[in-house]
UniProtKB/TrEMBL annotation:
<keyword id="KW-0067">ATP-binding</keyword>
<keyword id="KW-0812">Transmembrane</keyword>
<dbReference type="InterPro" id="IPR035985">
    <property type="entry name" value="Ubiquitin-activating_enz"/>
</dbReference>
<comment type="similarity">
    <text>Belongs to the HesA/MoeB/ThiF family.</text>
</comment>
<dbReference type="GO" id="GO:0008641">
    <property type="term" value="F:ubiquitin-like modifier activating enzyme activity"/>
</dbReference>
<keyword id="KW-1133">Transmembrane helix</keyword>
<keyword id="KW-0436">Ligase</keyword>
<dbReference type="GO" id="GO:0061504">
    <property type="term" value="P:cyclic threonylcarbamoyladenosine biosynthetic process"/>
</dbReference>
<dbReference type="InterPro" id="IPR045886">
    <property type="entry name" value="ThiF/MoeB/HesA"/>
</dbReference>
<keyword id="KW-0547">Nucleotide-binding</keyword>
<dbReference type="Pfam" id="PF00899">
    <property type="entry name" value="ThiF"/>
</dbReference>
<keyword id="KW-0496">Mitochondrion</keyword>
<dbReference type="GO" id="GO:0061503">
    <property type="term" value="F:tRNA threonylcarbamoyladenosine dehydratase"/>
</dbReference>
<dbReference type="InterPro" id="IPR000594">
    <property type="entry name" value="ThiF_NAD_FAD-bd"/>
</dbReference>
<feature type="domain" description="THIF-type NAD/FAD binding fold">
    <location>
        <begin position="67"/>
        <end position="328"/>
    </location>
</feature>
<comment type="function">
    <text>Catalyzes the ATP-dependent dehydration of threonylcarbamoyladenosine at position 37 (t(6)A37) to form cyclic t(6)A37 (ct(6)A37) in tRNAs that read codons beginning with adenine.</text>
</comment>
<keyword id="KW-0472">Membrane</keyword>
Length: 445
């Protein structure tokens, strides 16, 4: 139900104000009026909600509602979901709302959802169930309200607060079967993944759905094998600094960046001038950014997570998650081939190089962030020896474009010039920085 303050603003006036540029002022005023709606009032209303059929929900009706799941996963599988599975979803925005929705629709009967935020107007392009009347209501209560209409037999526990290390034991108590990480703040995300890893709690994490548009590049894999996903790369590097190199399952997109595609942008300067932008963020220190999100992509991430969990938990046949992801294997094989070809050209040596495909992934993605160290281009990439006097190893390989590889080969490896003769100081420093990082990360391989 819309609050009286929303009626005062009026939907037409609200849209008009946003169109004419009053985003900060209007949304800030709207959240001040609606962000503190009493959770007790909403919870009481939910508790008073009568079952569609009155009293207990009949088991025959539940089985009929889940009939397709029983046929697909079998009696034992669905019973495990219904009776022996407890899922905790941390973050129920675009991705987490779809995870929760499809888990409830698929028969998982015990779920705890954790989120501190409220539904906003901009949430409506990607949220699984929220409507205009939910704007200003906490995300966890919005989900519970809608999903109890779908499966009133489910136990949906809502916690309307921020997960952090101080609250971790309390919020994750009860021995969850799986924790689903859908947090969009990187520091909190890394804290949660480290906590679950060290406590041996099963966890699956969503990487970045923002700025992505190609559903065919969405993958499930170990955090150590992610590629092209900036959030995954940052998470991976931070986890390695905490001694965690692998063992965390993630959903990510291997879609390649392109200057013609959407990218993360700061809030326009004119919006800062109109008012206090802190009113646009629920917590202090959460950066105010415009994150371009194509509506279906968070849903695809969430549905991928849920499909994986449903099959994993019920023992349905799955391909093992290991090695290089399917969409990137050919790229890495091509890079390895160009290095072998270079070695052959440099003296007729055997084309086989002392690197595995996973070594190539490590050097390309982990050390050089899938960008040329010379030009920062991310297409037509190749690995090249840096110093002809040294053997091929991660300490003597530099990522560059194929054209740059040939130039480096002609001028440095086959010629008489040194890298200092060929490259400006900033490139030389960048390469040295990457080598220093590789020495650090090599301890965790």
């Amino acid at each position: 139900m819309m609050s009286s303050s929303f009626k005062v603003i009026g939907l037409t006036a609200l849209v008009s104000a946003i169109v004419t540029g009053g985003l900060v002022e209007v949304v800030g005023r709207y959240l001040r009026n609606n962000g503190n709606r009493s959770a007790d009032e909403d919870t009481t209303a939910l508790q008073k909600k009568e079952n569609l059929f009155g009293g207990e929900y009949d088991e025959d009706l539940i089985r009929e509602q889940l009939a397709r799941n029983y046929v697909f996963l079998g009696e034992e599988g669905v019973n495990k979901l219904r009776k022996d599975t407890f899922i905790v979803v941390v973050g129920v925005g675009g991705v987490g709302s779809w995870v929760t929705t499809m888990m409830v629709r698929s028969g998982i009967s015990k779920i705890r959802i954790i989120d501190f935020d409220q539904v906003t107007l901009s949430s409506l392009n990607r949220h699984a169930v929220a409507t205009l009347s939910d704007v200003g209501v906490s995300k966890v209560l919005t989900l519970k309200k809608h999903l109890l209409k779908v499966a009133p037999w489910c136990e949906i526990e809502t916690i309307n607060e921020l997960w952090n290390l101080e609250t971790s034991e309390r919020l994750l108590e009860g021995s969850p079967t799986f924790v689903v990480d859908c947090i969009d703040n990187i520091d909190t995300k890394v804290d949660l993944l480290e906590y679950c890893h060290k406590k041996k709690i099963n966890v699956i994490s969503s990487m970045g759905a923002g700025c992505k548009s190609d559903p065919t590049t969405v993958n499930i894999g170990d955090i150590s094998n992610t590629g092209e996903d900036p959030l995954a790369r940052s998470v991976r590097r931070r986890l390695k600094k905490r001694g965690i190199a692998s063992g965390i399952t993630v959903v990510f997109s291997a879609e390649k960046p392109d200057p013609r595609k959407a990218s993360l942008l700061p809030l326009p300067e004119d919006e800062y001038m109109k008012g206090n932008v802190d009113e646009l963020t629920p917590l202090r220190d959460f950066r105010v950014r415009i994150l371009p999100v194509l509506g279906p992509m968070p849903g695809i991430f969430g549905l991928t997570i849920t499909s994986y969990l449903l099959t994993y938990l019920t023992g349905y046949p799955l391909e093992p998650i290991e090695g290089v992801t399917k969409n990137r294997a050919k790229t890495y094989e091509g890079i390895l081939h160009t290095l072998a070809a270079q070695q052959s050209r440099l003296g007729g040596q055997e084309q086989r190089v002392p690197l595995s495909l996973n070594d190539v992934v490590y050097v390309v993605d982990e050390i050089f962030r899938a960008k040329s160290a010379i030009s920062s281009y991310s297409t037509r990439l190749a690995l090249s020896r840096w110093d002809m006097a040294k053997e091929i190893s991660p300490q003597n390989l530099v990522l560059m474009t194929r054209e740059e590889q040939l130039q480096h080969e002609q001028r440095v490896l086959s010629g008489r010039e040194t890298p200092e003769d060929v490259y400006p100081p900033e490139v030389l420093q960048r390469v040295q920085n990457r080598f220093e990082e590789e020495r650090y990360y090599a301890r965790f391989r």
